[in-house]
């Protein structure tokens, strides 16, 4: 399947997911009615994010835009970009409801520079569950670098590639390459194991999920294509694109129940392994900066 075909399959998948995520049991959309509300993902990283007030920001792969709205409430002038037109319909309605002045643009992330008219930004933000939809992490990093002004900053929190390698064992029961799981001796006795690719592969992984991670309805276009990227691959891509790494933190928690039956939530809505959470990196936060004019790379 060509990259263009992958893109159309994933666009249809996310158009279908958008209605499910905006429906019963989906994203906490009513929360935006509280003018002090910030998404749990943005709130988690506030100490690392720094002051974004007065900054021009773009949220790549923004989906329904909860993090986009949160960054706008922190004072950034935000633009959201997503491949899914249906997602952006919900995002625009939600931004209006929240009283947030956000410009939304429909485009594939690889086409972002052209789609945004060559604009440059002080902040490029990417949130949970974004990088796995990209077949080429180096190309993504080059797009990010092209979007940043000198001195501008990339900020990412996403699923850790080790966690994404383990998802196939516990969650993806229908995957044809999955092992038979001889270690599963009964309910609650499963142990995560690395079964899916850790490193980026050309072919990626094809899923067929009629249920999404949020919402109660069925996903009308259930097929999707995803790619994992090793942590070193992500960091190297960012550095090769000319950015200076400022921050890399690995976390033992994720803002969703990534391994159902094996994780326990805390009061902030972060999930960790119930048994010995120190075994599994679940997410990471990365920040990098485009050097200013006349400033060389460190």
Automatic annotation (TrEMBL):
It holds the Pfam family Methyltransf_12. Keywords: Methyltransferase, Transferase. One of its GO terms (biological process) is methylation. InterPro entries: Methyltransf_12, SAM-dependent_MTases_sf. Residues 59-154 form the Methyltransferase type domain. It comes from the Bacteria. GO terms for molecular function: methyltransferase activity. This is Class I SAM-dependent methyltransferase. It comes from Propioniciclava soli. The lineage of its organism: Bacteria, Bacillati, Actinomycetota, Actinomycetes, Propionibacteriales.
